[in-house]
Here is the input.
Amino acid sequence: MSWQVIGSIAELRAALAGARRAGRTIGLAPTMGALHAGHARLIEQAVEETDYAVVSIFVNPIQFNDPRDYDQYPRTLAEDAELCGRLGVRIVFAPSGEEMYAQPQQSFVEVQGVTQFLCGPFRPGHFRGVATVVLKLFQIVQPDVAYFGEKDAQQLAVIRRMVRDLNVPVRIVGVETVREADGVALSSRNRLLNGEERRQAPALYQALERVRERIEAGASDAAALRQEAVAALEERRIRVEYLEIVDLESMHPVERIDGPVRVAAAIWLGAVRLIDNVFCAGPGGAPTPPVAEPEGR
Ligand code: AMP
Here is the structure.
């Protein structure tokens, strides 16, 4: 099947008009590139579930609160496009910064509540940049379905909330986190870790899993579980930015755990910040499925 890389919004719209007229469903997987097997899972699902899969690759400047992080973010467009083609993607949309932000952006999407904890306070402006660029991408591509990773659970919650609050007619699908054999969640930032940091990285998932096991064995005091997990990481000389046990939808920390939750954390290994989270069914481990995704109509 043929595929193409498009950088212009007008050209993309023209290319998609035909597919839409032919009644094809359009799937979008928004990414910042440096694609890995985690992205591939999202893309495969889009290809499988929709007639016409679009992958956007755009390192979005307005979601970086640290300019150095933006500068050193890996950019591998040629390989990324190659992978998308192999996976059955029809269009790789890779706009320049000037194309996406032709004039200084004066309109922003601010999602409150779900951004109050976890990454929110540590990355001022981050979710505003994410929600704004995702809404722009939704307006440009007008997909029927869009795919986001549970790896960034708070981001997924922000997008679900935005779509509901603003009546955006896009169905949001969450995709399970893809991990290395040692548990480390795949991330474009992993390639910035040196050997020693990479050896420390599995401790993050181990700490989250330990909390999950403790809850499923009956522990319900969030503060005690937090303290224990943070201490275990700090003992290994890992700087913990946050570790919280949160409600699945509101992303607000819970005090007593009496139902399904997400255990989420951010750590620093040298200059690299890693985030991860696990779903936990709650005390007794009842296999409650994660929240059903509401339609943004
Ligand atoms: P990014 O390029 O980091 O902005 O990620 C693009 C999309 O891929 C987001 O929806 C991420 O949540 C998702 N993603 C990133 N890493 C993983 C992973 N290890 N497993 C599943 N999805 C992922």
